[in-house]
Amino acid sequence: MGPLIISLDVATRKDLFQLLDQFDANETLTVKIGMEMFYGEGPQIVRDLLKKGHHIFLDLKLHDIPNTVENGMRQIGRLGVTYTTVHALGGAQMIAQAKRGGLINGAQDAGGVAPARLLAVTELTSITAQGLRNEQNCRLPMAEQVVSLTQLAKQAGGADGGVITSPLEVPPALREQVGSDFLYVTPGIRPPSGASKDDQARTATPSEAAHNGSNALVIGRPIIQAADPVSAYHQYLKEWQNAER
Question: 183 - beta bridge partners?
C-alpha cells in the first residue's frame, strides 16, 4: 500500500507551515506541492520540506516538446523529490526523455539522490465523459482512454513509474490490461456521498479507492480546509489503511 498524500494547495509559505506545524514534529508526511506554491516560492520550498524529513510529490504536470521536458525534469531530478508528473498526452518520446534523460541524469548530477518516480497524468479528475468527447474530440470511452494512456506511459517510462487517474478507472481495466506492477495514484478522494465534490467529476471515498485497486491517494481540500486538518488526515489515513483490498 502506498501513501496518503496531502495536497498542500495553499497560497503562501506562511499558510503551508501554519498547516504543517499542526502535525507532530516526528510524523513523516508525504505532501504534494503544486503549481501555486512552486510558482510562488520556487524550489527552496521543496528543499525546506525535505530538510524536515517529508517526502515530496512535486506536481507540475510538464507537457511540452521532449527536449524542453527533459531539461525541466533534469532540474527537478536534482531536488530529490519522491514523485513528479508529466502529461501522458505529451507522448512516448516526451515521457521517455523525462525519465531517462531528465530524472535519472538530474539525480546523478545531485550526487546520487534517488531518481523521482515519474507519474503520468491520464485524464484529469475534472474531465467528464462529455468533455472528453466534445472538447478533446476523443471517441474512446473514458476507461479505454485511461487504459490507452497508461499503457503508453508504462511502455515509455518503465514499470517503476505510475499514473494519475481517478479511482473509478482502476478496476478492472487498468489492473487487468496494464498489470499490478505499476503505481496507480488517485486524486478525487472525497467523504461519503452528500459531501461537496468541488470541481472534481470522478470521485470515490478512501475505502472505495482501496477496493478498486488504488496504490496511493491524493487528498487536498477535505484535509487542508477541515476545522482540524490533523484529525481529518488521520481519519482518512485510518480508513485507507483498514480498507479491504
Answer: 162
